[in-house]
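Hi everyone, sorry if this is the wrong subforum. Our group has a chain we'd like a structural model of before ordering constructs, and none of us has done structure prediction before. Sequence below.
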Amino acid sequence: MLSFEEERDNYKENITSYRLFTHLYQHIAALAFAVKETNDNRQLFPNVTLGFHIYNNCFTEIGTYLAAMELLSRRRRLAVNYKCETENLPAAVISGPNTDICLHLATILCIYKIPQLIFGSSPMVNNEVQGLFFHHMFPQIGYQYGGILRLLLHFNWIWIGVVCRDDDTGQRFVQYVLPMFAQQGICFQFIVRIPKPDFTNTLDATVEKYNEMITNVMGSTANVILVHGETTTIMVIRLMIYVAEVMETPLRISTKVWVMTTQMEFAMLSFVRDWDIDFLHGAISFEVHSKALSGFKSFLQTKNPLSAKKDKFLWMFWEEVFNCDLPNPSLEKKDNMFCTGKEELEALPASVFEMSMTSHSYSIYNAVYAIAHALQAMYSTKLKQRAVSNDAREELWNRYSWQLHQFLRRVTFNNSAGEEVSFDQNGELLAGFDIINWVTFPNQSFVKIKVGTMEPQAPADKSFIIQDDAIVWPSIFNQELPLSRCNEKCQMGSNKRKKEGKPFCCYDCIPCPEGKISNYTDIDECFECPGYQYPNEDKDGCFPKEIIFLSFGEPLGMILAAFALKFSLITLFILGIFVKYKDTPIVKANNKNLTYILLTSLLLSFLCALLFIGQPGKVTCLLQQTAFGVIFSVALSSILAKTITVILAFIATKPGSRIRRWMGRRLAYSIIIFCSLTQVAINMAWLATSPPFPDLDMYSVSQKIVLKCNEGSSSMLYTLLGFMGFLALVSLTLAFLARKLPDSFNEATFITFSMLVFCSVWLCFIPTYLSTKGKNMVAVEIFSILASSFGLLSCIFSPKCYIILLRPELNSKEQLIKRRD
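Answer:
Right subforum, don't worry. Here is the predicted structure as tokens:
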């Protein structure tokens, strides 16, 4: 804990007999370096001269409260609020990096409205008043967690372990941050809470617990361990590894990638300087963005305990890092034990002391400058640029010291490294994070390489940048990207299925179902190919489908077209026979004009079948069903007219019958015209509302796209077919009733057979049509048209042709009279 006094040049050390973390001496050096620069820069800070106190809290609550009480007491006597000298309360306190230190201090400092500049993460405060006096040399904590999440997702590390402190800070991390990670697909194999170390006691009581913890961590299948800790966490992890080694527990030390939060820093006690730090090789950590200060290394090189005998911190640090004793009259003179003062700090491995400024030290440096700029702004405002004596300035400070907060909130400056330092409305530092890769060496030294950045204020595409190729991974991975998954990825052609009772990151891989593919690894669900493509055999890709239709060039199309033409020629031949023998009794018996109309409609029905063969177009699609419906309606209405004519002719022969007046061509033609116009009206309504059109059927046939005519409106098609079915049933019924009427050349019997064939064909057509797919549906419809038309043609006209051509003696008037008798 560091505190500042304005317009004093005092340096106080509160040192216990406790051995120190040698790395943390850099915090003291950064503080002294910053104060020296501000005091030397009289042009920038003409009204400000800084002094400071340093308090060691020994990482304990008692030590923190004791330091706070001493800060508010007279020197060398613990008497809070009692100051007999002309001492002032400190202008500000710089605390950190542990959050509990800051929170404990706030309990007391907020009473005196003393600003507290925190160079670690912000503590969670329950008292809003305490939070008013916090000024954070740390960006908003949520940015860091967002950066860690993006790092995990960037490398697809979704199966991780978590190590955190067993305190309020760790509890909040587990309770509020880890669920956010889980929502983005991160699973946790374990969450280990390490107890807060108590350096005033021995470690014997925690040996078993430490051994169990590190065994679980190192033996896990997760290759990535997220560590949420603070200053002493790395030390504790190293102690755990040491305990396991002492207990001869087999561990694979260099098998994990440690991802560490910004609050952590490398800090070791000097007696463990020879312990291996291999577990940190390849680790990745986040640090508050920092930049090298040109004069800091030179400042460290000037440090010499022999020329600064009052600097007790330096004396302790020097003896610890160089393992020697500085000259002291109370000690016996032993040349091999005394320090010469000529030892060089840069010769020390980084595990003992770092010469380059760490991010925490950089934050302390900026905190000193923030205080100096705020004080300068405050004096400039209050004094209104008037020159006053030191006493007047002291009186001014006592009156307005609490107003320093508003100036700290608004302070903005460029430090000596040329970087702008400013704060947001909540008093948090506007800065980003550096992503650091740790590389260790056999001599227990290490280097930290910047491999990326996290800039919350940058555009979205530039807010997270990382150089994958620059990262050094743990040696076991042979410089390949480490994988951290519960199980292997599902390969293409399969999808994931959750394992019961396991986290959602653990799953089985099952092949894609028929008709679906997965062309990515680790896909949740297989999906269908686009309509114009079909899955390959491995179900990991799609091939373009072949477009098909019933063409004249294929065998089935050629056969159907040949039968249509053949039947058309037969119909023409029969029509020619009936025209040639139009004056014979058998032709005249049932209205030869109706016969001509029926034969013509049957001829057109055979030719109509050709519309269904070939590539469907707009015209052919419009003509297919409409022409088929009208032509068949004419044919069926002609048969109906023939049947009604037969019935009326029989009834008219009875004495006194008045039906004779209905006999004649007018009735037959009226039936044909009425039925045909009704069908035409149905077709016109169909074409007007939802006409047929060329369409692609992509799904009924696998690996094929069927080019067909879409009916447009199924209901209109069923209406068309229903009307034809009605005509067929009426004709069949009437013909069946008239089949035994005593009349020569009675066609009712032949019509009955023809309509039975017609109805049988179309009744069979419906299930067959619905059960077939693709171009076979068209072939079924063509076959039904040809079969039903040929059934009518053969059943009605073959007996007559037989008589006309082969039994002409039966085609005579005498034979007609004989049959009637």
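For your construct planning: The longest strand covers residues 446-454. Residues 5-18 have pLDDT under 50 and may be disordered.
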